[in-house]
């Protein structure tokens, strides 16, 4: 690695007030031993894929993603770097390609590619770097209209789709969730349900002491998905559809009928894994950096499990980024084994959004 080149690349998107943001994060290995940003970059020399697992509104994770992309580009430009993103679905890949090739304007790119509402604050820097340096960008996710179909009707309903639609999904049938992933999912859903029930109880109690009574037939009050305190954010197809159909509402008509939600999650994971595998085949020898919500990759479950099927022998590095009250306080019970590297970021920093 060329030190000067690395320095220039690592600061490519660092504004004057963020150059010193090292004080707001700490890097550990999987067992909790102190590590470093440089150790992550060095580990990529023998990797095919870097998974960066994020909480979507953490400002530090987005700083680190930009820094990792720029630094990896500088360090491994001879082999090539590819950016893969959960934030775009596979059906907008032609639009992404047109933007990268400067065939369409920025405004048409934004209006046509259906970017997340926090794109400008959290992901635009990576895409602009990719555009400026001819780095391919993979729109890796399954279109929400199809994950919606699985949430409502189950995975067999995908066979009714056209051949054109199938191009935007992992090959069918895709694998079901592993036992380990299902256990993680069940724990996450239990936490979300407990938080929602507590919020509903609190809202009901507040109403009883207020000036307006709650009608007996009023539907249960529940928070938005951003209030869960869990990884699945607003915009998650399973939770969005679960709320819409009453699955996640305490006492709702379909409460408890959530099996298809995990099938929807698995379609999402499988499709992103398929997209990464295609990128590896289309760009032999390149390093693929996949940016995604942490739950999809932590503990090596989810996307990494599907990728092992689609690209046997793949070498990957997982970096799990978690906000923490004490960035020095690696908790073995909570953080051990989340990834090959675990980065704790300062949760006191203002979030980039509270509701998308």
List keywords for this structure.
disordered N terminus, 356 residues, alpha/beta, seven-stranded mixed beta sheet, single chain
Describe the structure in your own words.
The protein is α/β, with parallel strands linked by helices and 356 residues long. Among the domains are: 49 residues, no CATH class; 134 residues, no CATH class. Helix content is 42%, strand content 13%. The chain has a 7-stranded mixed β-sheet with strand order 1-7-6-2-5-3-4, sandwiched between helices. Helix 14 links the parallel strand 6 and strand 7. The N terminus is likely disordered.
As a percent range, the share of strand residues is 5-15%
Q: Enumerate the strands of the largest sheet in spatial order, edge to edge or round the barrel.
A: 1-7-6-2-5-3-4
The number of distinct helices, counting runs of at least 4 residues, comes to: 14
Query: H/E element string?
Result: HEHEHEHHHHEHHHHHEHEHE
Total beta strand runs: 7
What's the Cα radius of gyration?
Answer: 21 Å
Mean pLDDT: 85
Overall form: globular
Secondary structure blueprint with pairings:
Elements: H1 3-10, E1 25-29, H2 37-43, E2 49-54, H3 59-75, E3 81-89, H4 93-100, H5 106-113, H6 119-122, H7 124-132, E4 137-141, H8 144-153, H9 163-166, H10 179-209, H11 237-245, H12 259-282, E5 287-293, H13 303-310, E6 316-324, H14 332-335, E7 341-346
Parallel strand pairs: 2-5, 2-6, 3-4, 3-5, 6-7
Antiparallel strand pairs: 1-7
């Amino acid at each position: 690695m060329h030190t000067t080149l690395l320095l220039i690349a690592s600061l490519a998107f660092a504004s004057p007030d963020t150059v010193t943001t090292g004080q707001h994060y700490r890097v550990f290995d999987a067992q909790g031993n102190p590590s470093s940003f440089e150790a992550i970059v060095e580990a990529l020399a023998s990797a095919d894929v870097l998974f960066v697992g994020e909480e979507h509104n953490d400002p530090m994770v987005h700083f680190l993603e930009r820094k990792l992309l720029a630094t990896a580009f500088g360090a491994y430009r001879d082999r090539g770097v590819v950016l893969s993103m959960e934030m775009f679905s596979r059906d907008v890949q032609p639009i992404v390609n047109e933007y990268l090739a400067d065939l369409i304007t920025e405004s048409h790119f934004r209006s046509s590619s259906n970017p997340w509402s926090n794109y400008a604050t959290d992901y635009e820097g990576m895409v602009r770097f990719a555009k400026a340096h001819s780095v391919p960008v993979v729109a890796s996710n399954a279109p929400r209209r199809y994950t919606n179909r699985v949430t409502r009707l189950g995975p067999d309903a995908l066979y009714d789709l056209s051949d054109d639609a199938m191009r935007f999904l992992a090959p069918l049938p895709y694998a079901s969730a592993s036992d380990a992933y299902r256990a993680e999912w069940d724990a996450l859903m239990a936490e979300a349900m407990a938080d929602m029930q507590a919020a509903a109880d609190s809202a009901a109690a507040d109403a009883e002491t207020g000036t307006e009574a709650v009608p007996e037939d009023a539907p249960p009050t529940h928070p938005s998905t951003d209030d869960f305190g869990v990884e699945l954010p607003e915009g998650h197809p399973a939770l969005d559809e679960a709320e819409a159909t009453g699955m996640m509402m305490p006492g709702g008509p379909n409460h408890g009928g959530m099996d298809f939600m995990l099938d929807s999650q698995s379609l999402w994971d499988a499709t992103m894994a398929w997209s990464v595998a295609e990128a590896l085949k289309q760009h032999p020898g390149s390093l693929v950096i996949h940016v995604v919500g942490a739950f999809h990759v932590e503990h090596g479950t989810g996307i990494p499990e599907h990728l092992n099927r689609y690209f046997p022998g793949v070498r990957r590095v997982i970096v799990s980024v978690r906000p923490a009250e004490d960035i020095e306080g690696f908790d073995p019970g909570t953080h051990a084994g989340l990834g090959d590297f675990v980065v704790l970021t300062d949760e006191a920093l203002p979030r980039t959004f509270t509701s998308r």
